[in-house]
Amino acid sequence: MKFPGKRKSKHYFPVSLRDPLLLQQAQPDNEASPSWVVGIDQTLVDIEARVDDAFVERYGLSLGHSLVIEDDVAEALYQELVRENLITHQFAGGTIGNTMHNYSVLADDRSVLLGVMCNNITPGSYAYRYLGNTSSRTDLNYLQGVDGAIGRCFTLISEQGERTFAISPGHMNQLRPESIPEAVIAGASALVLTSYLVRCKPGEPMPQATMTAIGYAKKHNVPVVLTLGTKYVIADNPQWWRDFLKEHVSILAMNEEEALALTGESDPLLASNKALDWVDLVLCTAGPVGLYMAGYTEEEAKRKTQHPLLPGAIAEFNQYEFSRVMRLQDCQQPLRIFSHIAPYMGGPEKIMNTNGAGDGALAALLHDITANNYHRSNVPNSSKHKFNWLTYSSLAQVCKYANRVSYQVLNQHSPRLTRGLPEREDSLEEAYWER
Ligand SMILES: Nc1ncnc2c1ncn2[C@@H]1O[C@H](COP(=O)(O)OP(=O)(O)OP(=O)(O)O)[C@@H](O)[C@H]1O
Ligand SMILES: O=c1[nH]cnc2c1ncn2[C@@H]1O[C@H](CO)[C@@H](O)[C@H]1O
């Protein structure tokens, strides 16, 4: 695993020079990594095309959102894209598939993806493409076979760069509860889910499979991470989602629109604060405004920021952003902490599309959480584990890392990272200070 807190010289949480972990890292990689994350997704290939707004309207879609379409509509839509030669890219997608892939690229380590895959795969087919576009560090051995197609996500990009999704589900929701491996969840650093998983036809097994996975995660005290997907899924029934978060979820990832649908707050800081009533840690991306994080720390171990104090709906909200995050259940005297960061380098000069920028930020957060477990299992007596922290780095540092990864996604075409961050950025500090 590439170690996020160990970026060259600058640590907020110093470790001793002869750290056994460093010595261990000098040895050849062990294939069977002790640390991993696991996620469930609807297996989807993204089919990207440039269309005008009339196209979106003609097929009954909603600009900027993700809607599920029937087979006949999907066929007509696909035929029109082919006939008019509008398809520009086809690559593996799915919000959690993207996140697992990106995690594996960043950490150079194992993630496990649960979902469905065709039993019969022919060269050039969508399933073939999906497998070929997924990191070799993403373990696909637990996918459940289906006799039928995986899903297609028509990713329609308007003239203004806005993206609209039309989902043709195929067999993507046929994941059954008995296909969820308890041991894989029990040993994971996090179970990662999306609100899209409940968007199914009556009788489809995906929601039940998801609940089975959540049951295992709770049994083994593994944090459940939920990313909200699209504001419409939330706006359908915000109270249901609030109850769901309170009961099942530890870490929440969302953008500012989803945050508004969930909490009624349009200010991402206030929305994140509200969400802390239900979960332990919040990542709220806000497009050109950057991103916010909110979490809990242990009062006794809080650390003051060295950055300027920021004004906002909560005055000087970033005061303790140099603290590490803890799950509420592990805090003796919990203190709420917040952080914000503006887009890295002000954002890329030209953004072709923002697809997957949020998924990238979440992958970075997962990397930091898993690195903490990795460090704990290698150096259990380290002073870094005097408390039962959730992250390895401070909240401010996690924000930087997440933000940097979003930039990397914005700077390329696909939502899946084609490579990790540049080696010289093993110290993120340097990348930031040298601007
Ligand atoms: N127009 C922009 N200019 C600068 N940075 C941007 C812009 N849009 C996005 N970003 C960066 O990407 C991060 C995530 O963006 P955004 O809030 O759009 O994610 P999202 O809506 O969750 O994306 P997706 O659902 O496609 O993964 C932001 O925190 C910011 O750092
Ligand atoms: O219904 C859905 N289920 C799972 N993933 C989805 C759905 N709609 C869109 N995306 C995925 O979101 C990613 C960008 O964040 C895209 O790659 C797309 O495949």
TrEMBL record:
Binding site for ATP: 285-290, 358, 403
Signal peptide: none
Single GO term (MF): kinase activity
UniProt binding sites for GMP: 41-46, 94-98, 199
Keywords linked to the UniProt accession: ATP-binding, Kinase, Magnesium, Nucleotide-binding, Purine salvage, Transferase
Domain Carbohydrate kinase PfkB: 141-295
Family statement: Belongs to the carbohydrate kinase PfkB family.
Protein name (record): Guanosine-inosine kinase
